[in-house]
Amino acid sequence: MSLELARGELLRHENFIDGKWIAASGNASYVVTNPATQARLAQVANSAAADARAATDAASRALPAWRDTLPRERAAMLNRWHALILANTEDLARLMSLEQGKPLAEARGEVAYGASYVAWFAEEATKIYGDIIPQTQHGKRMMAIKEPIGVVAAITPWNFPLAMIARKIAPALAAGCTVVAKPAEDTPLTALALAALAQEAGLPDGVLNMISAARDEGIAAVADWLADDRVRKITFTGSTAVGKHLARESAGTLKKLSLELGGNAPFIVFADADLEAAVQGLMLAKFRNGGQTCVCPNRIYVHDSVYERFGELLAKRVSALHVGPATDAKAQIGPMINERAIDKIAKHVDDAVANGARVLAGGKRLSELGLNYYAPTVLADANDAMVLCCEETFGPVAPLFRFTDEDEVIRIANDTPFGLAAYFYTNDVRRIDRVARKLETGIVGINEGAVASEAAPFGGVKESGYGREGSKYGLDDYLSIKYLCQGGLG
After folding, report:
1. Mean pLDDT taken over the chain
2. Is the pLDDT score of 68 beyond 80?
3. CA atoms of 376 and 318, how far apart (whole Å)
4. What secondary structure letter does DSSP report for 274?
């Protein structure tokens, strides 16, 4: 697959600041590569603090006018953007597959998924209601109104280059905020194409600004946003360690933060579960995007009475997965994002085997395909002495743990600092309510492996972060509540 697009103008190399495409300060740039082949895809702007500040300047200037637009005007703009995203699905999917590695069919699905957030928040823009508070004294009227919080900095990861940026920018724009954004260093091309489409949709200059940067320069750029008191909110998806850093460093200006951080999701299969359905649910939850998702199951607990049968069914399905680059129309699992990711996966599998795990499927690098490929893997006899029990693998590895007691498996499932997602399969109606209430996560999949939706609140508890994205609740993180008290009314 080449980088030729139907609309070549969607391949952008510069920063998007104040409605203009401009080079980074000093004309600095870095190379974006294809994880499937390590081939050079593009050379993009390598931004520093000065570029981040220029983006903030533009967003700050644009804020008053954008804040004062009517909600239906903002909704119309978002609807035009949504239509353009869908109309350019093939180009966006091609860009995504080439820079991130996911199969083309999966990339097309992400375009539709990301666009759904733009459409959803176009509708939500017109539903920002306040309240008249019942009187407590004669002659006074009390009201609560919601206002846009201000300039928002959005920092997104590489695993969903389109969906994550859309899920953050769309509610910010719907609320009347302006945005400065930095996509992940590995995957800036999809995000920059989205910015080009937003410009085409008629978004006013300065309302959305986007800069790209390599790792070290990106840290400096983000640090500028953390220190600038004009940036009133940070929305970040990524590792817990970086999320904690952002929280600490932004404390000086008391910014509002939304943090969607790491996970260590349990997947519990009870004895009375429909095993075929549980296997299908696990395939959806675990192997989407090659296991490179924050909500994919990292610990799979299977009741002892069905353990061997479940392992057999799962291994058969996993062994049949077709691994290959996006150029392979049959590919279901693509390359991992880089060599560091492959090394971590191999380390986790090797450690598990050394501590007694049995390999039911996979368990090896696929060097014949390229540097960044690892076979989808199922491990039996996993235990809590293994590194993968407490560290997020972020790859196509499914370790199976045994359990016999409901209370014990819930205790073990909750025995982690993370709390993003959890899944369980059972046909016992009473157990469904009982287990769902006891699991300490922000998201619970009940007899279901695909939980994400633009209509649902997405986010975690504990060290998986705070704030919610998507749904009617997703707008609240971009709004502040102002209390109005009017006296002298007789």
Report:
1. 97
2. yes
3. 6
4. -
DSSP 188-216: HHHHHHHHHHHHHTTPPTTSEEE----HH
Active site includes 260?
A: yes
In this structure, the answer to whether residues 250 and 279 fall within a common structural domain is: no
Q: With H, G, I as helix, E, B as strand and everything else as coil, classify residue 226.
A: helix
> The domain containing residue 322 runs over which residues?
265-454
Tell me how far apart the alpha carbons of residues 216 and 357 are, in angstroms, rounded to a whole number.
38
Amino acid at 393: T
Closest CA to 267 of 293, 280, 289, 285: 285
Q: Which residues pair with 45 in a beta bridge?
A: 29
Sequence-ordered list of residues with C-beta below 8 angstroms from that of 465, at least 6 positions apart, any chain: 240, 243, 258, 259, 260, 261, 420, 459
Let me know whether 79 and 18 are in one domain.
yes
Q: Is the Cβ–Cβ distance between 420 and 262 less than 8 Å?
A: yes
Confidence of residue 3 (pLDDT cuts 50, 70, 90): confident
Is residue 229 located within the same domain as residue 194?
yes
Other C-beta atoms lying within 10 Å of the C-beta of residue 340:
10
- Identify whether residues 272 and 142 lie together within a single domain: no
Angle at 397 between CA 393 and CA 401, to 5 degrees: 95
Q: Which amino acid is at 398?
A: A
For tokens 């350019």, name the residue. 88
The tokens of 141 are what? 């009227």
Cα–Cα nearest to 262, from 416, 57, 452, 430: 416
Nearest alpha carbon to residue 268 among 444, 461, 451: 444
How far is residue 281's CA from residue 267's CA, in Å, rounded to a whole number? 10
Phi and psi at 143, nearest 5°, equal -140, 155
Q: Could you tell me the CATH number of the domain that includes residue 322?
A: 3.40.309.10
Quick one: 241 and 309 in the same domain?
A: no
* Amino acid code (one letter) for 30: Y
Catalytic residue among 110, 217, 260, 406: 260
pLDDT at site 1: 62
Residue 331 pLDDT exceeds 90: yes
Here the CATH number for the domain that contains residue 245 is 3.40.605.10
Q: What's the CA gap between 78 and 153, in Å, rounded? A: 19
* CA distance linking residue 444 with residue 451, whole number of Å: 8
- Token pair 């235990």 in the structure block, residue: 383
